[in-house]
Amino acid sequence: MIQALLxxxxxxxxxxxxxxxxxxxxxxxxxxxxITQLRTTETDGYVAVxxxxxxxxxxxxxxxxxxxxxxxxxxxxLETLREVPAxxxxxxxxxxxxDASMFAQGEIVDVIGTSKGKGFAGVMKxxxxxGGPKTHGQSDRWRHSGSVGSGTTPGRTFKNMRxxxxxxxxxxxxxxxxxxxxxxxxxxxxxxxxxxxPNGGLVVIRKKPPEVY
Length: 213
Known about the structure:
By secondary structure, the protein is mostly beta strands. Helices cover 8% and strands 38% of the residues. It has a six-stranded antiparallel beta barrel with strand order 1-2-11-10-7-12. A four-stranded antiparallel beta sheet has the order 5-4-3-6. A two-stranded antiparallel ribbon has the order 8-9.
């Protein structure tokens, strides 16, 4: 059984339950995905499934051959190919279609995505520093980090010192999000709360073991 599904973040909205309580939620276009390759212990040393998601109008010749081997039409390519974990591949076939019906309302899942890139950021934005004093002549140190090491001993800056630098554009996993609703016909999944990445970004919805919920 496949343990994850590829999707696209559509944006945030709010949902009302039967008691009128509003909940912030994120809509995800979960699938449809197609099985393009099966990884087995005998051939690869591990068990996984390669899924294809999205539409690519002009696929490359290697991808055409890859999709042809999976029994999929090579006239239209797939935008993203990504491996996801699986319990076993015995009941799975190449070219099979996987959609949002694999999830159920109330299920707990993890969501993996790439956070928004913020570029080069200072220490207050990147590490939540409080900045320098706002008085006593410190007119040019309001957003600086302060000391990063003494001069004579050790005479250098230690590794992993929190300083200004690149922020965002990193793999982020948000755990234990509850599925508020599932619409298999439109392949829509509503998740409680926020997930990483911009609208239109690729995300992976990963199932949790049954004992979690």
